[in-house]
Each structure stands twice: as C-alpha cells, then as structure tokens.
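DATA SHEET
Item: assembly model
Revision: 1
Owner: S.N.
Input lines:
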Amino acid sequence: MKKILAVETSCDDTAVAIVREDGFVVFNQVSNQDEIHQAYGGVVPELASRNHAYYLLPLIEQALKESNHTWMDIDELAVTNRPGLVGSLIVGLVTVKSLSLLLKKPYIAVNHIEGHILSPFLWDQDTPSVSLPFPFLSLIVSGGHTYLFEVKDFGQYYLISRTLDDAAGEVLDKIARSLGLGYPGGAQMDKISQSVSPGRYSFPKIKLKEKSLNFSFSGLKTSAIHLIQKMKPLENKELIPYICADFQSAVINQIIDRLDRAIQQSGLKSIAIAGGVSANSRLRKQALSWASRSNINLILPPLKYCTDNAAMIGFTGLKQLQKGIKSTQELNCYPHSLKEDFYLDPI
Ligand code: KG4
Ligand code: ZN
C-alpha cells in the first residue's frame, strides 16, 4: 500500500505526517508556535514563516526516524499550497518541491480546506476508522473559514453555505482577546467556560432569510464587544467565564440551527464537523445530542485531526494522486482557494 509524507504550514503550526493509502496515520506531529505568538495576541505572519523554516526539516527527519521509515518507504509527497498565509505556505511548498526533485518522487499541492473535509477518514492505532458513505454534509469551522459543503465523492465538494462576515473561530478569538484571555482564544474560551453554565447574558439571535443556510457572526461579536466595553475596566474577573459561556453558546446555537436546516433541506442523514472550532467541547456535546435526537449519523474526528495537522493533507494528496493528478515545479501558493476547488450550490 502506498505511503505519503505530508507537510502543512498554512498558518502558525508546522505539521508533518506519514499516511497510508487507506487513511491509516503512521506518524502525525504538530509543532505549534503558540508561545511565540501569544505575546502579540494573534499570529504574526513574519514570525510564523521564520519558525516554519526553523522547525520543518528537523520535523521531517523526526517523522522518518520515529516511524522507522527511510525515503525508500515513501512513495509520494503532499503539501498545502492554499489558502493561508503566503509567507508560511511558501516554506512548505518550496521544501516539498525540492524533496520531490531530489528524491524523484511525485508531489501534490492541496487545498487546506479539502484536507479538513477529508479528516474524518483518518484513523490510527488509537482511533478506529468510521463509516461515512457519500454523500454527506461537511461543516468546516476554523479560524478563517466557516463553510458547509455537500460532499458527493472525493474531489466533489458542493459549497452550500458560508459565513457572510467573520468565521466562527475568528469571533471566538477576537472576543477571547478583548477579555484578555491567551492565544489561541477559542481553546481558552472553551476551557474557561467549562466551570459555569450559560444563561447570565443574552446575545441577539441573528436573523437571516427563513431558509438561508448562511452564517453571520459579526453581529454577535459587536454585541459582545459592547458588553465588554460597558464593563470596562473588567473589575469583576469572575464574570469572564460567564461571558465566555454565553458567547460561545450563541455561536454554537447558530451553528446547530443551520445544520438542522441543512439536514431538512438536503434530506441527507450524515454529517461531519471538522476544523479547529470542532474541537470545542460544548459544540461537540450539543452537536451529539442534536444528532441523536434527529437520528443523524454525526462524525466528529478526534481533536488531533480537528485542528490543523498534516495527516489530512496527506490523505487528500493520496486521493488526488490516485486519480493521476500531480503538481509541477512551477506551481505557486495562494492566500485563497481556487475557483475549481469547490462547486457552488447543489440544493
Ligand atoms: O483549523 P484550525 O486549527 O486552523 C485554521 O485553519 O484556521 O482552526 C483554528 C481555530 C482558532 O480560531 C482556534 O481558536 C479555534 O480553531 N479552536 C477552538 C478550540 N480549539 C481551537 N475554538 C473553540 N474551542 C476549542 N477547543
Ligand atoms: Zn485549518
């Protein structure tokens, strides 16, 4: 069975993985730069790319060594080339292009969001594989993106809806930042709100057209910022977990509401949720109880495959190489997806 070595450097995490054709993850490691960016309250692109240059090759060497593999055991290479921070993507792309030339192995450049879509197909020693027949709905909630797709097959992603403004992770990060919580904010907010129950503060329910499946989080963000400004200086730090719990709930309630509409409109019975925000403990709990009430087959990948990782890039690359698609040395990287990446509007 073929094996691929994959590299992901689209934002601030340097990630390397080795994945088998059937989705089995042989090696998966992420060097996060959280401590470096923490001081600035968000990712500093220049620092992110510099640190990729520092971490990447040693991590690739570690991948081979710890998995007892040599380059002879690796058939192909994969790398993220879009969307993301260009300075960060370049480090991964140029490294993988050079390895491809040197080792005379094919490489494929893939879309990071497609990686998240296919992350439910990953499995390993501790994670059994799941049954997820096509077609299914895929919600991608990450730091920069909120997309709902109908996935008809590998490579066939129909974009059903998206956020009209900010991404879910983006508003969680922004509010966490204005509350003085660390970076990355979404994870901190999750942690801090676990000790309290929501219900003290209310945030407006965003009204879109009755049948709309789109998301909108900027109204919630503005309302939270007003609340925080009124309370400034936030003398009563004990209130912070309550604000977090209610803000997080407002974001999650909107997500579940759209999923419910999408299931009803599409008639599909399977849904996967992936991307960093799907690591949120409250979202996972609420989504699981919604799915069991509504008789939905819900797939939530383990946390290590929800947040950024290279295993999802490897599996995506394998699927494309199986179809005979390869990338060339002239290929570039892009801050955005390409128009051929996703189809629009199936429903
Ligand atoms: O997919 P991802 O790792 O990177 C991007 O592609 O953007 O997602 C990062 C986002 C950040 O906004 C981060 O705050 C959020 O995922 N996140 C969480 C949690 N863990 C990461 N949000 C809520 N709860 C979490 N436990
Ligand atoms: Zn991501």
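QC remark: Residues 112, 116, 142, 275-276, 308 surround zinc ion (ligand 2) (CB under 6 Å).
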